Amino acid sequence: MSTVILDTKSITTDAFAGLSSNGVTYTTSTVTWVNVSQTSATFRIVEASNTSGDIVVAAGATGTYTATGLGDETAYTFTLERFEVDTWVQQTSSTSGLDHVESTTYSSTLSVSTGSTSTTVTFSDPGLTGMEYNVQLTQEGSVISQVTVTNDSHETAFNGLTQGDAYSVVLNVIENGASTQLDSVSITTSAAAAMIITGPFASYVELDWSASVDGAGSNYRVTNRSDSGDDVLVSSSSATLATIQDLTPGQAYTFVLQREEPDLSWSDQSEISTTALTTSLSIASVASKTIEVSWSNLYSGAEFELFYNQTANGKTTDLTSILRDLAPSTAYELELVVYELGEAVGLSTLGMTTNDAFLGGSTNVAILIGAIIAAIIAAIVAMTMM
């Protein structure tokens, strides 16, 4: 008995539909493939224990699938399966020749610069477009401030923080209507820098805040605060001490130490009110050729000098000065100065006129008046005896 061949036909099986990765975000990964079959086919994507629904792709068309709800900075493995007759058949990768593709979602990390009352926040950008981020400032688990930014701006700042307090900065990304936390950083604002004062003197004070700061690159300045605002006395500097000069004796000052914040604003750290020292001249005695002047002390070791009509009477640490060899019946302008930081600082002025030469000093005046009165009495007595 022989076999009779009724018909023959050559058949070529379809090639595998090669799978390719076509982009990732923080929480999504997209894969594509081409249906090389002459007819439409049904596919599905498998990732670990998660399987997509059936995806029907027309002959020669490209299939696309986007996995959502993924974790950031996480590696995922995707395989492509085609339904054939009554079973699912795994395809291969068009790029690697393997039976799967791998992709890793993006991540962003926070970088913060924190001062005493503010913090500046920046975060990395993987180059995605159209992304929306939510940056939160939290304290003890509660959101106290938040801002929404796009991928066009990767910097924001939080102001008005309490000095020396602990906070957290949280970065979230908004994708497909869901928020995913990308990173968080704990911060502590700097405690207020305490300023101490040496002085005051008549024309300067010394301010020091080195004991309360770490000196790690922060900039400080000192202002004089008044009703008209802040007058900057010492410009931005990383120094932790300052000598404030050119003060006016007897004038009140309020010195405010300020720190430059990460957002380039200035925050008050500490405040000291004081009054520059001064004293006034007091006349002890005046005669025809001498004037004795006194004043109160400013501080230990203060060096004074009294001028009369712009003539120096010699430096002294005493609190009195006698001007000698003056001209009788002459007006003198007296000025007291103190020497500080190598400069003469004017403290007080006073106008005074010496006595007449004939009269001399106050003692001589009394003697002369007494003699005149005695002469008058003697004349009266002589007349009554006549």
Architecture overview:
By secondary structure, the chain is mostly beta strands. 25% of the residues are buried. The strands form eight sheets. Strands 3, 4, 5, 7, 8 and 9 form a six-stranded antiparallel sheet that branches. It has one helix and 30 strands. The chain has one helix at 362-384; strands spanning 19-24, 29-34, 41-47, 50-51, 55-57, 62-67, 75-84, 87-90, 101-104, 110-114, 119-123, 132-139, 142-150, 155-158, 166-175, 178-188, 196-198, 205-208, 220-226, 229-237, 241-244, 252-260, 266-275, 282-286, 291-294, 304-308, 311-316, 320-323, 331-340, 343-353. The radius of gyration is 47 Å and the shape is rod-shaped. It is 6% helix and 49% strand. It folds into four domains: 19-104, Sandwich (Immunoglobulin-like); 110-188, Immunoglobulins (Immunoglobulin-like, Sandwich), CATH 2.60.40; 196-275, Immunoglobulin-like (Sandwich); 279-386, Immunoglobulins (Immunoglobulin-like, Sandwich), CATH 2.60.40.10.
